[in-house]
Amino acid sequence: MSESSKTLEDQLKKLRCHFTWNLQEKEGDNIAIEEKLIGQMESRATYNKHKVYNLMAYIKYVQGDYIEAMARLREAEELCRSNSNQSPAKYLVIYGNYAWLNYILKEHEMAQLYVEKVESIYQELQQSNDPNLFNCPEIYGEQGWTLLIYGGRYYEQAKECFEKALESAPEDPDWNTGYAMAIYRLESFQDGKYPELNPKDSVVKTLLGLKLQDLKEKDEGLKYIEEALEQTPVNPYVLRYVAKFYRLARMYDEALRVLKTALGFQPKSAFILSQIGLCYKYKFIDVKQSKHPNPNRQKEINEHIQKAIYYLELALEYEKSFKYVYVALANMYQEKNEIQKAEELFQTLLGFESLTRSEKQSYRFEYGKFAFFGKKSEAEAINHYKEALMIPGSFREGWKCENELKKRAERKLRYNPEDSLALGLLGLVYKVQGENAEAIRYYEKALKNDVNNGEYTRALSELRNQDN
Q: Where does each TPR repeat begin and end (predicted)?
């Protein structure tokens, strides 16, 4: 590498843009993000739509489509230029992306030109009478918005970015909305933060409504939700959050009405399709569990199952990484008695290499429930619960597995106090709970009736070694 190239690369690394924000580059994630951005191109206000095209340019670069990436950057630049009220700081991320993309394409002179454009803007901002301009809230805000789009692992960092942006631009509606969304998704929304979040903003209203619902203030929350929907009836974010409120309130028909409106703006949104499918699933459950006389009960059940399957299948067609959809769809196929299809969905889901340990335990537990209720196989269900319980870590589904295994073991022992399988299951439960003395006692009993059982022998040896 020549000295000039090395110097240019050093300059590029100092730029604040998508290429230096350490964004993940998994193909599936980027496909999902691209789908979100396409919807936002239609719904975002013109004054900040350049951020959508800017991020889309980066997505196209990751996908290897450099020509399209350049085209998106030009569109982002043109959007800024067409709005005469834009601060020059709006160009900083765009020009940073231009510099990196040209460098990657071996167009070093053009890359250097854009580096110099960035430096020129900084000099202009430094000479301004407004010190807040030089703090560049636009960069912090755009980074926060980008991190929010990329999902869970970035929410804390997104919140910090919006906080920095709001220090210099406390009234900016975009940064207030982003900050509210980051806080809500981190589940750290506090009553004292409400006045800071620009409650006139429709997205913020929906988030306030959801939080009030979470605090058991449903009526007050509904007021915010309905105001937000009346204020901006075509904003995809508003529609999604309104639908979530209705769904959590078990107002499924209202949720479906809003979701289908949103689907009109984003017909290929896997998220919206999945939420419609879930609403039909919950409607099915309501009808199935209802104690009220209903001459159309079976017809409604069949219709809800069929619609749930249709929308959930469509969601997976557009986005195969929506893990929760596999479980919901498998449940619906189980209700339709299409056991093989449900089985295939669970096997596909548990074959994902990207599953966290928590997800492995959760989905293995669901597989166990399916084995017991769908396949009518207690033995297979027990194996799934055991496998889930042995996954390292303390997760929510662990205690559910413990309860299932303990319940089945105690039932078996009522019929046969010497049942070695039941005794071994209790040994496992107590072992996982850290009650070694009880675990040893049950494993010893189990081995008396199943002397050659290697699993019990190994567990007993391990427990005794821990006590020594």
A: 420-453
